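PROTEIN DESIGN WORKSHEET
SECTION A - STRUCTURE
LENGTH: 244
TOKENS:
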């Protein structure tokens, strides 16, 4: 990171920007990831660059859903791997579930680099997409999945997606947890649970919440998620943005 003092008022934002730029340089994030990040930054500004109550609620419900899932899977693209590799590895180990690399801008080399980065950061079970398992209702590179991962998942965690796949996953009968700073995005609208927050803030809180709920029984987990309406989360985020 260039010589930016921690006292700089935009230190955290600059640090995160640097992670994405470094991710592109290392061949982990796609060059298009920079544009996606800039879009995220703009929405982060609009929600006050903090984890709002609607995100805390969504994180609690997401934690309960992940703990109650039979076969949860964490789907990772270039941006997620550049920004929060350690947290993705910790989440996977905590839930004892695989991480599956699934990228939009097709590149075998980048898939391999993303996998290596996750392993270096402590992940134990990282799957790559295979040509023998296909997700229905989608035509992009993201249709290729792993038969031991997303193919048999009941809940898929998809931080900062690119749109049509969340819908395809839902049509394939899966529950989808998205992290997306834009409450109007297609992903945010189609997911079962949308955490409208920056992935760099949402991941540590999700991990902390899962650790807290880890020994809860099934009934208690159901009580946490039973009255959740994703429509209300998105509406609350939009009210905040429009009210500025
Ligand atoms: O590695 P690949 O090839 O799979 O490509 C990944 C990107 C992210 C480039 C690709 O999926 C893409 O183009 O995504 P989009 O359509 O630009 O959407 C990304 C969404 O993530 C947007 O709605 C952004 O607002 C949101 N976003 C960006 N940065 C963050 C974020 N949400 C949460 N935390 C962030 N840090």
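SECTION B - SEQUENCE
RESIDUE ASSIGNMENT:
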């Amino acid at each position: 990171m260039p010589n930016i003092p921690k006292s700089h008022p935009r230190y955290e934002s600059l640090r995160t920007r640097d992670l994405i730029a470094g991710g592109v340089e290392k061949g982990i994030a796609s060059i298009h990831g920079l544009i996606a990040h800039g879009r995220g930054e703009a929405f982060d500004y609009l929600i006050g660059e903090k984890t709002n109550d609607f995100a805390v609620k969504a994180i609690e419900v997401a934690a309960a859903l992940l703990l109650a899932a039979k076969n949860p899977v964490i789907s990772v693209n270039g941006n997620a791997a550049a920004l929060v590799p350690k947290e993705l590895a910790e989440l996977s180990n905590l839930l004892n579930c695989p991480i599956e690399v699934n990228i939009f801008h097709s590149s075998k080399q980048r898939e391999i680099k993303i996998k290596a980065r996750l392993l270096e950061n402590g992940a134990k079970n990282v799957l790559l997409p295979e040509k023998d398992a296909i997700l229905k209702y989608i035509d992009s590179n993201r249709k290729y999945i792993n038969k031991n991962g997303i193919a048999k998942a009941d809940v898929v965690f998809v931080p900062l997606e690119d749109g049509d796949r969340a819908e395809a996953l839902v049509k394939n009968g899966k529950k989808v947890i998205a992290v997306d700073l834009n409450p109007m995005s297609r992903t945010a609208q189609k997911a079962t649970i949308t955490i409208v927050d920056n992935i760099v803030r949402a991941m540590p809180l999700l991990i902390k919440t899962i650790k807290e709920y880890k020994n809860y029984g099934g009934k208690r987990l159901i009580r946490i998620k039973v009255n959740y309406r994703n429509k209300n989360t998105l509406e609350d985020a939009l009210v905040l943005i429009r009210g500025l």
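SECTION C - NOTES
The radius of gyration is 17 Å.
The mean pLDDT is 95.
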